[in-house]
Amino acid sequence: MIFRELRPAFSLVVLFTLLIGLILPGIFTGAMQAVLPWQANGSLVRQDGQVIGSALIGQNFVGVQYFIPRPSALSPAPYTQATSGASNLAPTSRALLASVQQRVTAYVQAYGPGPVPADAVTASGSGLDPDISLENALRQAPAVAKARHLPAGTVIALVQAMAHHAFLGMIGTDHVNVLKLNLALDQRPVS
Amino acid sequence: MTIHGLLYIALLFALVLGAAFPLGRYMAAIFEGRIVWLRQVEMCFYRLAGIDAGRQMGWQSYAIALLLLSVIHFGMLYAILRLQYYLPFNPLHIAGMSPRLAFNTAASFTTNTNWQAYVPEQQISNGAQMLGLCVHMFLSAAAGIAAAAAVMRAFTGSGLKTLGNFYTDLTRITLYLLIPGALIAATLLVMAGAPQTFAQAVQLHTLQSGAQPLAIGPVAFQEAIKEFGTNGGGFFNANSAHPFENPNAWTNLLENWLLLVIGFALPIAFGHMVKDKPQGRTLMAAMAIILVLGCVGAYAAEAAGNPQQIAAGVQASGNWEGKEIRFGIPASTTFNVSATGTSTGAVDSFTDSYTPLGGAVPLFLMQLGEVTPGGVGSGFYTIIVFALLSVFVAGLMVGRTPEYLGKKVQAKEIKLAMLGVLILTFFILVGAGFSLVTPSGIASLANGGPHGLSEMLYGWTSATENNGSAFAGLSADTPLLDYGLGAAMLFGRFAFMVPVLAIAGSLAAKPKLAESAGTFPTTGTLFTFLLIGVIIILGGLQFMPADTLGPIAEHFLLYAGKSF
Question: ipTM > 0.90?
Answer without folding.
Answer: yes
